[in-house]
């Protein structure tokens, strides 16, 4: 990293402490020596699961998202609990949200979806060898699951029907994985 661009934290702390999110407000020194504030959301991190059936279809969810007041098409995902192993979180979330289990798991990549105002990261996992079971949704969680092909997903991205960033990135990864040009980390 180029140290000429580094911003240095001087002090600060939590400005808001919610059940799910925290907002930090820090006083920082800019590279030119000036002092300013930075406010950002502190997030525990999350996982995203790319559930891939043997026939090339993928498992997706439709879920209402309150901040934007509408339904979104997404890959299964969920927040990492304190001290929880990220892969174990992915396995837990897949069962909770969809009822499916997988026999094969591969780490794909880590993404940072809101770098200007959040420290959130999402670890993406590819899940194969899917077996149906009973979903165990969290209290207050409502969603529908359905399947799609990757080309159908990409058409939905192009048409603006899928706008969720983690799902778009997952669809692009799956396209590359299925055509053999990219492989997840070993």
From TrEMBL:
Q: Which PROSITE patterns match?
A: NUDIX, NUDIX_BOX
What reaction does this enzyme carry out catalytically? GDP-alpha-D-mannose + H2O = alpha-D-mannose 1-phosphate + GMP + 2 H(+)
Which keywords does this Swiss-Prot/TrEMBL entry list?
A: Hydrolase
Q: Which InterPro entries match?
A: NUDIX_hydrolase-like_dom_sf, NUDIX_hydrolase_CS, NUDIX_hydrolase_dom
Q: Spell out the coiled coil positions from the record.
A: none
Presence of the UniProt keyword Hydrolase in the record: yes
GO MF annotation: an example: hydrolase activity
Q: Has the keyword Hydrolase been applied to this entry?
A: yes
SUPFAM superfamilies this protein is in? Answer: Nudix
The cross-references to Gene3D superfamilies, in alphabetical order and at most eight, read: Nucleoside Triphosphate Pyrophosphohydrolase
Q: Which GO terms describe its biological process?
A: nucleoside phosphate metabolic process; ribose phosphate metabolic process
Taxonomically, which superkingdom?
Answer: Bacteria
- Cofactor(s) the record lists: Mg(2+)
Q: Which residues form the Nudix hydrolase domain?
A: 41-170
| One Pfam family, short name | NUDIX
Q: Which PANTHER family match?
A: NUDIX HYDROLASE DOMAIN-CONTAINING PROTEIN, UDP/ADP-SUGAR PYROPHOSPHATASE
Which family does the UniProt entry place this protein in?
Belongs to the Nudix hydrolase family. NudK subfamily.
What is the protein's given name? GDP-mannose pyrophosphatase
- Protein's organism: Massilia polaris
């Amino acid at each position: 990293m180029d140290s000429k661009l580094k911003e240095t934290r001087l002090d600060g702390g939590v400005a808001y402490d919610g059940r799910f999110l925290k907002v930090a407000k820090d006083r920082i020194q800019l590279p030119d020596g000036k002092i300013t504030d930075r406010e950002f959301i502190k997030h525990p991190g999350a996982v995203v699961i790319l559930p891939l059936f043997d026939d090339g279809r993928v498992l997706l969810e439709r879920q209402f998202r309150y901040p934007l007041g509408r339904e979104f098409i997404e890959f299964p995902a969920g927040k990492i609990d304190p001290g929880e192993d990220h892969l174990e979180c992915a396995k837990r979330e897949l069962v909770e949200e969809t009822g499916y289990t997988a026999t094969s798991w591969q780490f794909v990549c880590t993404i940072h979806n809101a770098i200007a105002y959040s420290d959130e990261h999402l670890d993406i996992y590819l899940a194969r060898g899917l077996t149906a079971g009973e979903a165990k949704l969290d209290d207050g969680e409502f969603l529908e699951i359905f399947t799609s092909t990757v080309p159908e997903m990409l058409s939905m991205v192009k048409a603006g029907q899928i706008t969720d960033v983690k799902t778009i990135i997952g669809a692009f990864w799956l396209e590359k994985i299925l055509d053999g040009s990219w492989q997840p980390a070993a």
